[in-house]
Design brief:
Layout: H1 12-15, E1 16-24, E2 28-35, E3 41-48, H2 49-52, H3 54-58, H4 61-73, E4 82-87, E5 91-97, H5 104-111, H6 116-135, E6 148-150, E7 159-161, H7 166-170, H8 172-179, H9 188-192, H10 202-217, H11 232-237, H12 245-248, H13 253-262, H14 273-277
Antiparallel strand pairs: 1-2, 2-3, 3-5, 4-5, 6-7
Helix pairs in contact: 6-10, 10-13
Bound molecules: adenosine-5'-diphosphate and magnesium ion.
Binding site for ATP: 45
Domain Protein kinase: 16-282
Protein name: Serine/threonine-protein kinase fhke-related
Length: 293
């Protein structure tokens, strides 16, 4: 291994029984891992180094390992924590806390959508966890229901956010290029500026707005339909979305207002997390009709 042994370890197969596939994402396969010594269960995320680490590795291993160290220090009840990292010739193995409730997006597909009260419970955890990540200098950049896991099967509203900090390991530019392939949750400034990467934590605020829209209604605000006059990218860059009556007639104005405040193209006018925590919808209060204009 090229990575200094104090930071990553080799020989993951001597330490863990690696079992069946738990899930697949854009960057990795995730498999069940049983720690041989303790019998504890983990999720092992396996990243193909050739595919994803090329540019980052050539930037210098020490920098990469600094990122890894930072990520193993990050701990929050609503985050899938990173326990350890192993490396082999071709792969990087992230040993993660195992989460058993499945993806939020599957839950939404089965349920249709969440009630406003349950949505608020979920959303509060998302705000808390992003506030924490941002305070640690980490922008998630790929917040979407596939990356929001349910902590337990028996509980619909206890969530754990997965996949944080990946852009720090893989390299921001390459990361953004790959996730730009599924832009439903991407902020306009990210879509336009993928090359430079000159955007900050506000891109997570935008994604929060899309996620809230999806949790409450079970549908996406920006869609990629073949007969649409505006492309997905055009819709996002002008915040061109609506609250169709079939799904939104019984939803409070406060919820709609909060979503609008997040889905604001101008990053300076977009609502931030501190403000969102005090928004009427979070406090279970009503909004005026004029707030929606
Ligand atoms: P990628 O970076 O490739 O998108 P993710 O971290 O999102 O990878 O993981 C891909 C999928 O694997 C997730 O959508 C989920 O279904 C499953 N998964 C990821 N982390 C865990 C975990 N800690 N416990 C259980 N399943 C997980
Ligand atoms: Mg993912």
């Amino acid at each position: 291994s090229v990575i200094p042994p104090e930071n990553t370890k080799t020989g993951i197969y001597t330490q863990y029984d690696i079992r069946h596939l738990l899930g697949e994402g854009q960057f990795a396969e995730v498999k069940l891992g049983i720690h041989k010594k303790t019998g504890n269960y983990y999720a092992i995320k396996i990243i193909d180094k050739k595919k994803f680490l090329g540019p980052k590795l050539s930037m210098g291993r020490n920098k990469l390992m600094d990122e890894v160290k930072i990520l193993t220090r990050i701990r929050h009840t609503n985050l899938v924590c990173l326990e350890a990292i192993y490396e082999s010739e071709n792969y990087l193995y992230l040993v993660l806390e195992l989460v058993t409730g499945g993806e939020l997006c599957d839950k939404i597909m089965n349920k249709g959508h969440y009630s406003e009260d349950d949505s608020r419970i979920i959303f509060k955890q998302l705000l808390d966890v992003l506030l924490y990540l941002h305070s640690e200098g980490i922008v998630h950049r790929d917040l979407k229901p596939e990356n929001i896991l349910l902590a337990q099967k028996e509980n619909n509203t206890f969530i754990k956010v997965a996949d944080f900090g990946v852009s720090r390991i893989i390299g921001q530019n390459q990361y953004m290029q790959t996730i730009a392939g599924t832009p439903y949750y991407l902020a306009p400034e990210v879509l336009v500026q993928t090359e430079k990467g000159g955007y900050g934590k506000e891109c997570d605020y935008w994604s929060l707005g899309v996620v809230l829209y999806v949790i409450i209604s079970g549908s996406l605000p920006f869609k990629d339909k073949p007969n649409q006059e505006k492309s997905l990218q055009q819709q996002i860059s002008t915040a061109d979305f609506s609250f169709p009556k079939e799904k939104w007639s019984n939803i409070s104005l406060a919820a709609k207002n909060l979503i609008k405040r997040f889905l604001t193209v101008d990053v300076k006018k977009r609502i931030n997390i501190e403000q969102a925590l005090k928004h009427p919808w979070m406090l279970k209060k009503n909004c005026l009709v004029t707030d929606l204009l």
